[in-house]
Amino acid sequence: MRSPGRTIALGCLSVLLSFSILGGSLAVLGLRSGLSSLEERLGADIMVVPYEATTKSSFSNLILQGSPGYFYMDSSILDEVKEIEGVGDASEQFFLASASAGCCSVAVQIIGFNPDTDFTIQPWISGKYTDKLGYMDIVAGHSLNVSVGDTLTFYGSTCRVSAKMDETGTYLDASVYGDEDTIKTLIASALEKQIYDFGDVDPDRVVSSVLVNVADGYSVEDVAGQINLYCDGVSAVQTQSLVSEVSSGIGSVSGVIGALIAVIWALALLIQILAFVMISNERKKEFAVIRLLGASRRRLAGIVLKEGMIISLVGAFAGGGISALALCLFSGWIESSLGLPFLPPRGGMMAALFVCAIALSVLTGAIASGVSAMRVSRADTAFILREK
Amino acid sequence: MVKRILSLILLIASAFLTLGAKWVFPACSAAEDGSFMSCHWAGQAVIGAGAVLNVLSVLLLVFRDGGKRCGIAAAMVPVALYVVLLPGTLIPLCMMAGMQCRSVMRPAVMLLGILILAIALITAFLNARSGDNGRFDKSASGGSRQTV
């Protein structure tokens, strides 16, 4: 007797199982990839920023979520930092935040760097753009909806997009990059329009941060301590501590997701076993007739097993498909909601996870229907047919 | 019964698309000067297309004839495809990936659009089979009829 409702209910269980397995795996891997990407892109051992910047949550938001922000200190800090023992490479960066108003095409983080000393942004850009970045040329992060050759206006000054970067899952995706001269022009334009107040700092002599790589043989912690001790008004942030904070956050989230997947899998298996056993109980006379018609016990068990696997396979495809689609479409929202770097797997890795999720769902369905198939194959046909 | 369930799912999904584009996953709000960005109009277009899908879903539930239901379901397919293409492809959205229109509205509209498209295709196929064979689904027609 056909029962579409029963089949749909079993299929829905399989949908839920593959959805949760694939969705959970993609979420965990996306967070871990985002963290590796952040670690790679931060590039420096120490970030020296104005002390006031670290007291605000906007600093971590800038680094972790790419929320536009800016802070400044006098450029003499660069020379002070270079004099500290243990400092290897040092390079300054300039932050500027555009606005979502008439003056600017889009509200983004604008990051300027010194091409002569930079060791974090240029190695990343060089994969896509090998020429020297010209005056008023900018490189756009992946999240910006622009193409090479487009122009963007910031504070009345027009910049040309020279390259667009690959996705990193970090604050870099929501930023544009220009050389020191470009940023100083934009700062001057912003000053002219009286949009920013630089306080006591001379706008012609500002930097936002100094990135430091520690020389061989020196400990990062010691050098950061020295900078905090001898340089006034700044805070030396060890980038590893930023990454560690994110890492422990990701660890907790991964643990919760893993536990949820395990619970859902166990529940789905139990419910499927119960469902298949109940169904086989309902259909025992049907199976008895099939036996009477000449089917062996093994063949009957095979029919039950195949039915279960087909239902599981269809449900697994549907669940896996919905999960992959939802995660890819909502990856931006997931990243901003979690406040953590997020880089979901693409291409081959996604396909491999999809296949694994489906295989696991089908295996679960096979185990559940296998239990039922065993019971069915052992039933006494004559006894069943004599029952009222 | 399966066809009824699918028609009901189409109606619920279409209603969620229409109401959601207004209240649950709307586009970005107006700019400081009161003007609307292009994503606002993408949202308005989605609401309009969603209303069309709602009407078609209701007709799908009302009509009993397999051939008519097949036609209505088939008509929902291009409308659903249009809904999927509206935000971002036919009407540009904001530049930043973090903006509401790109991070919430577009994915939600695309997901619902694809779901409606898939179910409409399945519904059209199921009703085409019953229409061609001259057999009528008992549950759809409320009684059984046979044509020779």
Please describe what this structure looks like.
- The complex is a heterodimer of chains A (388) and B (148).
- Chain A has 388 residues and is of the alpha+beta class.
- Chain A has helices spanning 4-42, 51-54, 57-65, 76-82, 121-125, 180-192, 220-230, 239-282, 284-292, 297-329, 331-338, 347-378, 381-386; strands spanning 46-50, 73-74, 87-97, 109-113, 137-140, 151-154, 157-164, 175-179, 206-207, 209-214, 234-238.
- In chain A, the strands form two sheets. Chain A has a nine-stranded mixed beta sheet.
- The longest helix of chain A is centred in the C-terminal third of the chain and has 44 residues, at 239-282.
- The model of chain B is unreliable at 133-148 (pLDDT under 50).
- Chain B has 148 residues and is an all-alpha fold.
- Chain B is 72% helix and 0% strand.
* Tally of strands of chain B: 0
Helical percent range of chain B? Answer: over 70%
Count all strands of chain A and give the number. 11
Count of alpha/pi helices of chain A: 13
Largest interface: A-B, 25 and 21 residues
Terminal residue distance of chain A: 18 Å
- Return Rg of chain B in Å: 18 Å
What best-fitting shape of chain A do the alpha-carbon axes yield?
elongated
Largest sheet: number of strands, sense, barrel closure of chain B: none
Beta percentage of chain A is 5-15%
What is the assembly state of the chains in this entry?
heterodimer
Biggest sheet of chain A, in brief?
9 strands, mixed
Radius of gyration of chain A: 30 Å
Residue-averaged pLDDT of chain B: 86
